[in-house]
Write a structure and sequence with these properties.
By secondary structure, the protein is α/β, with parallel strands linked by helices. The chain has a single domain (about 1-205), classed as TIM Barrel (Alpha-Beta Barrel). The chain is about 20% helix and about 25% strand. The chain is built from five helices and nine strands, in the order βββαβαβββαβαβα. Helix 2 (about 80-90) links the parallel strand 4 and strand 5 (about 90-95). It starts with a strand and ends in an 8-residue tail after the last helix.
Length: about 210
């Protein structure tokens, strides 16, 4: 059984899949408390569902792209079995994880979208950098940037770990804290080979709207 906060159908707001229809499975619980968290409601709220019931709910939307998110989905051990069974059933599976828990046992068919927490998140010490060793070329590392300090730190991490040679790298702003144009200008000034992204769903709907 897994504790599920919500299952809903929307468009991908972030990642290299941005704009595509997707079914989101949001798991309850998180081991982090980021300063800019926008899903605090997933810390505790949820109901118990079996993997079979979750897949039945997903099938209602007739959509092949599924994202497992949270909270922190890897906090629940059963999430590994859910991702494996989804892949077995022909779904394209994305995992959004905060980067503080091991990803080495994630099914290789799953596309990992992993945060590395920047200084302003307050969770810098929770980054598990050894996870980088298990990323595939099609996986993604995401940096959520709220200040110039965050940007310089992120730039250094990308260079130190040669992330551009290992996977996709994405920079985005902390919504409402750093103007997108500032981050874009920094990227262009430094000629970084980085994909800038916005949280698309926060522009389509109200920024704090749930289930989108």
């Amino acid at each position: 059984m897994l504790k599920i906060n919500e299952i809903y159908y929307s468009v991908q707001g972030e990642s290299t899949k941005a704009g595509l229809p997707c079914v989101f499975v949001r798991l309850t619980y998180c081991n982090l408390r980021c300063s800019y968290c926008d899903t605090e409601y997933a810390f505790y709220e949820g109901k118990d569902l079996s993997i079979e019931d979750i897949i039945l709910e997903i099938r209602k939307y007739d959509c092949s792209l599924v994202e497992i998110t949270g909270g922190e989905p890897l906090f629940q051990e059963e999430s590994f079995g859910l991702m494996r069974q989804l892949a077995d059933n022909g779904f394209e599976v994305l995992l959004e994880t905060g980067g503080s828990l091991p990803v080495n046992n994630v099914d290789k068919r799953v596309k990992i979208i992993m945060d590395l927490k920047t200084p302003s998140s307050g969770m810098l010490k929770k980054n598990m950098y050894e996870n980088i060793n298990y990323l595939k070329k099609e996986d993604e590392v995401k940096f959520v940037i709220g200040s110039r300090e965050d940007y310089l730190w992120s730039k250094n991490i990308v260079e130190t770990y040669s992330l551009n040679n290992k996977c996709h790298v994405l920079f985005s702003v902390v919504f409402g804290k750093l103007l997108p144009v500032e981050l874009v200008n920094w990227i262009l000034e430094d000629k970084l080979n980085i994909r800038f992204q916005l949280q698309m769903h926060k522009f389509i709907w109200k920024p704090d709207e749930r289930g989108v």
